[in-house]
Design goal:
mainly alpha, Cytochrome Bc1 Complex, Chain D, domain 2, 2 domains, two-stranded antiparallel ribbon, 36% helix, globular
């Protein structure tokens, strides 16, 4: 769900999404039921993780999360009733899909690799170019995008309102009939529960190889961009791992030549489960990504100046890969709360 529109013109999707989101916000400016809930009972927050910031109109409750989960796995969200949010974001794969570029309704192929939804509630902005500021706004993008769900919001609401269970859940969760305001907020509530931070790296239960890899991760400069508890600095950068870039990256949003081929730095949590890699899924394995970084990548005018050939030995690369694989959070990928 966190892919930029793959068929729209450079600015159209972002602008339309923000306009639609504003209209949804205005439509939702009515009183909702009082909220009395402890998010700590709904969200498994690992040690050291900060508390998420919740919108004033969408504080998490069990009813909202449950409704959002049901919608997340519902293929009726797509025009041909053949794909759901979970099609591109499979819990077993850390909420990715193992495809180079994701497949939408009627087997339409997008142009970007589906990113993980782990810790998506902590992101300061969404999409690979950072063009959408909230989860509630982002939910609108795949619903109406031609190569994703391809279903206009009013038609989606009309379809789902025929379901008496969803109607009942909507009233329990938001004290109002099911509408696009409820749909976007409920799915966002569920996605905010997708917190991952209980890998063997976090518990410091590492083998000798993984421990060496952890040291290399720091000394080789990997941690400069993949920093902190989320293993990302949330900045935009060109890593130069491709010879050519057909995707303009953040420049699709800003139209700034300096942003061409720059993308939001992804988290490395659960990275062993999210192959293939890069924004277009063009690199098949984690070892291949490491080897490209080790060689220094390819030249590009916007390539981050920190990136250079690393000079790692084959053993170093193996140790670094072992460390990255230790960032897998099995508790997260097998959590029954994230399954239909």
């Amino acid at each position: 769900m966190l892919r930029w529109s793959s068929s729209a013109k450079p600015h159209s999707t972002g602008v339309l999404c923000l306009i639609a989101a504003a209209l949804v916000f205005i439509a939702g400016c009515t009183d909702t039921a009082p909220v009395v809930a402890d998010p700590e009972q709904l969200i498994d927050r690992p040690p050291g993780f900060p508390e998420q910031q919740y919108p004033a109109d969408n504080f998490p409750t069990p009813e909202r999360v449950e409704l959002g989960k049901r919608l997340f796995f519902d293929v009726r969200m797509s025009a041909n009733r053949d794909v759901s949010c979970a099609t591109c974001h499979d819990p077993a794969r850390a909420f990715t899909d193992a495809l180079a570029t994701s497949q939408g309704t009627a087997s339409r192929r997008g142009t970007r690799n589906a990113p993980s939804l782990a810790n998506v509630g902590y992101l300061p902005y969404l999409m690979r170019e950072g063009g959408v500021p909230t989860l509630e706004m982002q939910i609108l993008v795949p619903i109406q995008e031609h190569v994703e769900f391809d279903l206009e919001a009013p038609l989606l609401v009309e379809r789902l309102r025929q379901d008496s269970l969803l109607q009942s859940m909507s009233r329990s969760a938001y004290n109002r009939p099911l509408d696009i305001w409820v749909i976007t907020r409920a799915i966002a509530s569920f996605e905010r529960t997708l917190v991952s931070g209980r890998s063997r790296v976090d518990t410091e239960d590492l083998s000798a190889s993984e421990q060496r890899g952890k040291t290399i991760f720091s000394t080789a400069g990997c941690s400069s961009c993949h920093a902190g508890i989320f293993y990302t600095n949330d900045r935009f950068a060109c890593n130069g791992l491709l010879e050519t870039y057909s995707d303009r990256g953040r420049a699709r949003l800003t139209n700034d030549p300096g942003d061409v081929a720059t993308f939001r730095v992804p988290s490395l949590r659960n990275v062993a489960l999210t192959a293939p890699y890069l924004h277009n899924g063009s690199v098949s394995t984690l070892r291949q990504v490491i080897e490209r970084y080790n060689r220094g990548g390819y030249p590009h005018p916007n390539k981050d100046t920190m990136l250079r050939a690393l000079g790692l030995s084959a053993l170093d690369c193996a140790d670094l890969e072992a460390f990255l694989r230790a960032l897998t959070d099995d508790r997260f990928t097998t959590n029954p709360r994230f399954r239909p």
